[in-house]
Amino acid sequence: RSVSQVPVAEGKSVQQTVELLARRLEALGADKQGTFGVDCETYHTAGAIGTQGQTGKLMYVMHNSEYPLSCFALFENGPCLVADANFDTLMVKLKGFFQNAKANKIESRGTRYQYCDFLVKLGTVTMGPSARGISVEVEYCPCVIANDCWNLLMEFMQSFMGSHTPGIPSVFGAKHDSVYSPGDTMVQYMELFNKIRKQQQVPVAGIR
């Protein structure tokens, strides 16, 4: 699977760009197959903020509608823990150790499309009430060895993403010839969400 960000088309809004991509997919012959959602909440290690000017380590707790019984806990550059859905309750009990940065919740929601053996999820990424970006997840369903199908994935993505077709994801390089897992998809979403967060953190000039 590949998870990537598509920039907003010039002169268009996020929603208009999503509709443009959807029309391209439907023109290829892709069929709508329901909806999907991926969300991510940020936790920081309690008590570590402000210690010698350093922030605590961040943990991301994520959910994916494709895996309704699972919860994913990820550290940047660190392990991905796959737990059952009760993990959310555990995080409430661990609030003395991990504090939820509520303002940082980010999610991607949208439509699933099936085209032959490909599954495409076209999502609008939101933080709070506003749309911040566009995510595209593409899966070649018959193959579970990431590197075996990358060229095929890329060729298909070029058919509707054009020049915005992404390069090979970093998780593919780490997997080599091993089996691709749901956690690898969540790592890609975490990286995409963090990239979009950083794009929003542009200093505002002229405020006195």
TrEMBL record:
InterPro entries: Mediator_Med20. GO terms for cellular component: mediator complex. Its main location: nucleus. GO terms for biological process: regulation of transcription by RNA polymerase II. It is found in: Nucleus. It holds the Pfam family Med20. The keyword Glycoprotein does not apply. PANTHER family: MEDIATOR OF RNA POLYMERASE II TRANSCRIPTION SUBUNIT 20, UBIQUITIN SPECIFIC PROTEASE HOMOLOG 49. Component of the Mediator complex, a coactivator involved in the regulated transcription of nearly all RNA polymerase II-dependent genes. Mediator functions as a bridge to convey information from gene-specific regulatory proteins to the basal RNA polymerase II transcription machinery. Mediator is recruited to promoters by direct interactions with regulatory proteins and serves as a scaffold for the assembly of a functional preinitiation complex with RNA polymerase II and the general transcription factors. This is Mediator of RNA polymerase II transcription subunit 20. It comes from Tachuris rubrigastra. The gene is Med20.
